Amino acid sequence: MIDQEFEEDTQVVAAKYLLNPDEDRAVDPETQARLEALLQAAGISQLAAKDGKHLADPEVLRRLTSSVSCALDEAAAALTRMRSDNPRTQPEKTSLVEACTDGDVGTVRKLLTEGRSVHETSEEGESLLSLACSAGYYELAQVLLAMHANVEDRGIKGECTPLMEAASAGHLDIVKLLVKHGADVNAQSTSGNYALPRRRAHLNGNTPLMYGCAGGHTKVVEFLLENGANVEDHNENGHTPLMEAASAGHVDLAKILLKRGAGINTHSNEFKESALTLACYKGHLEMVRFLLEAGADQEHKTDEMHTALMEASMDGHVEVARLLLDSGAQVNMPTDSFESPLTLAACGGHVDLAMLLIERGANIEEVNDEGYTPLMEAAREGHEEMVHLLLGQ
């Protein structure tokens, strides 16, 4: 028996009304069957009613209609979602660039066989092959090369080759594919679109090896070196692959490059930066340690007459400075420099570093080329804590 509370539920009442055969109601068998199926789909079980006279109540029918309407709305929404998720209902791509960007190999094949040019470029001027190589779409790169894409195609931008894009992103399989198709491992970039972390303004001339070193892609670097990449090539900024690896802190790559003959004390032509000064400026402690152990000259000076210790002092790299001092770095201003490590630390407000330098014998009264002491520089820059430190000495 159904209890009284359940008996009074309007959906139950409506179900009993609609599903119970009654000679007083003119409902043909086909309609009865459809109503039964609809109610069952809505989760209303078949029920038998002994007395259906009160089941013609308009309020009951209104509520039942509302329930069924909601169910139909949900069904319609579900069908809409199914349609949107079905690839067959999606609009067909007509843009080669869009297809390449999405890695849609099938569409690319279709459009190329219909006569579209493999030499099309994106709005930004990138070649189709570069788009594929940058994103790591190996199969797509294969298709484009099979359709006679230029392995050296730099697009309208004329910046990076596909090999540079692949090396920068670390896609070893694509790097191998491009080299197999004759890509130049020593090609150089021809404008300033760089992923390379560099202290100064980006210049031209980066090679695939430099991109691989900057990105820390060990396998890519090893493969390029095995296939003739020049370990001592330099860009227009004067940076070698070792400098790029040092600047990014990739110790394993620095080891590989030195084994391949990279010069540890090679410096850039314009700014006179070395692998060690770049590593010190960026604060890469383990890289600095490795380079010192490998024989790097820590008293080499940049174009600003900065030693490695001075480069570390500029950005407050305390542990790097400590390592350099422990390795014999000169704590006071060299005779041909314009400022001391302490002055640079004071300018930057690096209190902990200043304390270390003072502990190691830094001269707090030493003046720079403008005649300012570290205290004057700290006051000029508004570093109150630094001022208190220096006044207390």
Automatic annotation (TrEMBL):
Pfam families associated with the record: Ank_2
The species this protein was found in: Asbolus verrucosus
UniProt keyword Repeat present: yes
Chain positions of ANK repeats: 158-190, 204-236, 237-269, 271-303, 304-336, 337-369, 370-393
Highest taxon listed in the record's lineage: Eukaryota
Keywords: ANK repeat, Repeat
Gene Ontology CC terms: cytoplasm
Keyword presence, Repeat: yes
Protein name: Ankyrin repeat domain containing protein
GO biological process: innate immune response
